[in-house]
Amino acid sequence: MSVVFQSSSGWVLDSLSLINRGYQQCIRWADSDKSHVKCCFKWRCFQILKSRYNLSGGAAVEGEHSDVLHKTDKPSKKRKRKHSELNQGEIDSKAFHEKIRSVILEGTKLLVDSARSLGYLTGETDTVEEPLPSQECSLAALCEMAKELPLVEDEEQKECIQLLATEDGCAAHVDLFSQVTENKEDWAAVVTMMGEEYVIPPNTAFLLSDFTRIQPLVQCGRKFDLIVIDPPWENKSVKRSRRYSFLPSTQLKRLPVPQLSSSGCLLVTWVTNRPSHLRFVRDELYPHWGVQVVAEWFWLKVTTSGQFVFPLDSQHKKPYEVLILGRCPTNTSTRSSERPEIEDKRLIVSVPSALHSQKPSLSEVLKPYVGAEAKCLELFARSLQPGWTSWGNEVLKFQHVSYFNVTPADTFKDETTDDCAQKPARPNTVSQ
């Protein structure tokens, strides 16, 4: 039920179900004792009930629904511009927006209307009040401290992968900063690491390190059929808020994508709406890796009522983000006809997380283009996914137990049931 609706325009996703699919079977380790638990990501994180702005219905997907918008907090006072003329970046942004506006407006309306007919995006919510989780993430700081430790030379690295559990099923003592950690079990685990509890999905691997300590991931020798990159783009807002460290665009070229990608690997990069970033990925970054751009997709953020979270034509923030898809070089032994064609200008519609920088999982929408058995990697990840390998200096951020409701369970539950679903119950997936 994580893909609510699918058509030629794109997909409507239930992000909460996408997260919870990995925690149907979960064990909690406490010293040498184990117990069955049920882990559900807190549904409150995806209760975006109101549009951020209420500017004459500007945030509505269609005009007739503008009266559905709720009045939000008073808009912040904007500083007066000294000059009325637009700078070049603003001119480029406006031109890009006008180019894609009709595709976004028409496609989102179709997808939202279809989802509503299935009982989704109707604005119905659970009446139980639950505060948003707030966890001070110190992982990046720990990675900075770990940089003081000496690097392990290749010849000294006997094992580049360490298991989360020992052979007898007990929690293992792991070195998170210099080795890839893997949960090879078919069930999730709540484990204590660095004095905090984290929920680790099944069949997942991760490396907690910063940009300068990515070598252990390369040393493992694994090649990936899908690589998703969510760079910490540099911008004024990030500099002012200091919410996370950013990386200059040119530094992204140092990512070892050629060493990590298999023949014909699909590469997907999250990009801000800043024209310079879009041009950099298309004209510099992908060509640097020999990657051919094949499509441009858009993630549309809507409320639980199906309204844009920001007005579509807002000059401040847009209700969409861009994904640039590309294919890595293919060996002559692999026929290009074996790969399905990737359509351009597809839309992914979902209710965004209220937590900063938590993107929706792309696993279900990308599966047809890489295969169900594809090896998948996320770079600059802030969470883990079942069956994926993840890397980043905050790779465990949204795995902290504070983001989950953890309750005792007598035994492993049937995977066909879903007690974690946000109420009202989710409709069946429908494709057109």
UniProtKB/TrEMBL annotation:
Q: Which InterPro entries match?
A: DNA_methylase_N6_adenine_CS (IPR002052), MT-A70-like (IPR007757), SAM-dependent_MTases_sf (IPR029063)
Q: Which GO terms describe its cellular component?
A: cytosol; nucleus
The secretion signal range is none
- Positions of the region Disordered? 64-86
Question: Would you kindly state one Gene Ontology biological process term found in this protein's UniProt entry?
Answer: methylation
Q: Name one Pfam family in it.
A: MT-A70
The residue ranges flagged as biased composition, category Basic and acidic residues, are: 64-75
Molecular function (GO) terms for this protein are:
nucleic acid binding; RNA methyltransferase activity; site-specific DNA-methyltransferase (adenine-specific) activity
Q: Which family does it belong to?
A: Belongs to the MT-A70-like family.
Q: What is this protein called?
A: Methyltransferase 4, N6-adenosine
